[in-house]
Write a structure and sequence with these properties.
This protein is an alpha/beta fold. The protein folds into two domains: 157 residues, Rossmann fold (3-Layer(aba) Sandwich); 96 residues, N-(1-d-carboxylethyl)-l-norvaline Dehydrogenase, domain 2 (Orthogonal Bundle), CATH 1.10.1040.10. It is 53% helix and 15% strand. It has an eight-stranded mixed beta sheet with strand order 3-2-1-4-5-6-7-8, with helices on both faces. Helix 8 crosses helix 11.
Length: 267
């Protein structure tokens, strides 16, 4: 269980952060929040302390969840945490960012007596809303176990993948498979419809076969918010590693052709 003296800080209260914060507050956790743009009134009404800067959140927190968008925002947030965070504070990078960004920030944190783990969020907004997120984590075992306790109200599983950055590697792999499945699912359902088989009946059949996949099982719920960012990161790190990804390299253009309405048309 989480220590009674631990206070959780939340940097980022957009769709994901607000859902995470709501689950923490419902579980009775003390929560300090900062977001310069998002409406935090619902979190305040539920008992969160809304502060005026990320540095103030760091000063008041033992575990800080960084739920922002990209590498630049993560660096900005952790700069504030480094400025005012107390020794022993655990910072969880929950955004989808580059593995080397996590490693660089973890090294700086360690020099300041702070701890960093990457804790990439899987299952998106619907998972956050349901309190069933999966965290792919990279870092020391003790740090991940501490985060496991802190994140219990909003997670279904916390998976320790390896050293700092490994969680982001797992998230990148997950993202490539997600978007590849969605694109393939669209194409086979369109083919089935053209050949006289309704998509819903096809999905029931495929659920029992070797082509079964989670996006197909959850058809109709996908929001297509981040395919381009996810794939850009994946292809960039692959290029730097000297790994060819011919299938994945076609996905950005193929995903740009799709809209949520295209997916709904196949429900």
């Amino acid at each position: 269980m989480i220590r009674k003296d631990e206070r959780i800080g939340l940097l980022g209260a957009g769709r994901m952060g607000a859902a995470i914060g709501g689950h923490l507050l419902a579980a009775g956790r003390a929560l300090a929040v900062y977001d310069p743009i998002a409406d935090t009134s619902a979190l305040a009404a539920a008992g969160a302390e809304i502060l005026s800067s990320a540095a103030e959140v760091a000063e008041r927190s033992n575990v800080v969840l960084v739920v922002v968008v990209d590498d630049a925002q993560v660096r900005q947030a952790l700069g504030a945490v480094f400025e005012r965070g107390r020794p022993g504070t655990l910072v969880a990078i929950c955004a989808s960012v580059r593995p080397d960004t996590c490693r660089e920030l973890a090294a700086e944190a360690e020099s300041r007596g702070l701890r960093v783990t990457d804790a990439a969020l899987v299952r998106g907004e619907r998972g956050a809303e349901a309190g069933e997120l999966v965290l792919y984590c990279g870092g020391a075992v003790d740090d991940v176990e501490r985060l496991r306790a802190a994140s219990e109200p909003f997670t279904e599983a916390v998976v320790h993948v390896g050293d700092v950055g490994a969680g982001q590697v797992a998230k990148t792999a997950n993202n490539v498979l997600l978007w590849a499945c969605i694109r393939a699912d669209v194409e086979v359902q369109r083919l089935a419809r053209a050949l006289g088989v309704e998509p819903a009946r096809l999905r029931d059949a495929l659920a029992l076969g070797s082509g079964a996949n989670r996006p197909l099982a959850e058809w109709g719920n996908h929001r297509l918010r981040w395919p381009h960012k996810d794939l850009e990161v994946a292809l960039a790190v692959a290029a730097e590693a000297g790994v060819e990804m011919p299938l994945a390299s076609q996905l950005p253009a193929l995903m740009r052709e799709l809209t949520v309405d295209d997916l709904r048309d196949l429900v």
